[in-house]
Write a structure and sequence with these properties.
This protein is mostly helical and 78 residues long. It is built from three helices and no strands. It has helices at 2-10, 15-38, 74-77.
């Protein structure tokens, strides 16, 4: 039934519009396959990424005068 409705709706479309429909259907199929292969109920395809807290610990720094006013804005601060 749904396929018949899709064919009926697509019958009046131009060649370019039909190509857009085809690309969209392929996109839906790929997204569906990704959703099913990830095993995630919410469809999150990034669930295979494992995060580890603290991997950048000690790599950043902040200067001692971070909270001090900038010289460029002294006239606005007065």
């Amino acid at each position: 039934m749904a396929l018949d409705l899709l064919l009926q709706e697509a019958s009046g479309l131009s060649e370019a519009e039909l190509n857009q429909v085809i690309r969209f259907v392929r996109f839906i199929k790929i997204e569906s396959a990704n959703k099913n292969s990830s095993g995630s109920e919410d469809g999150n395809t990034h669930s295979s990424v494992i995060r580890k807290a603290g991997i950048y610990r000690g790599k950043g720094w902040m200067s001692d005068d971070f909270n001090e006013p900038l010289d460029d804005f002294k006239e606005y601060m007065e």
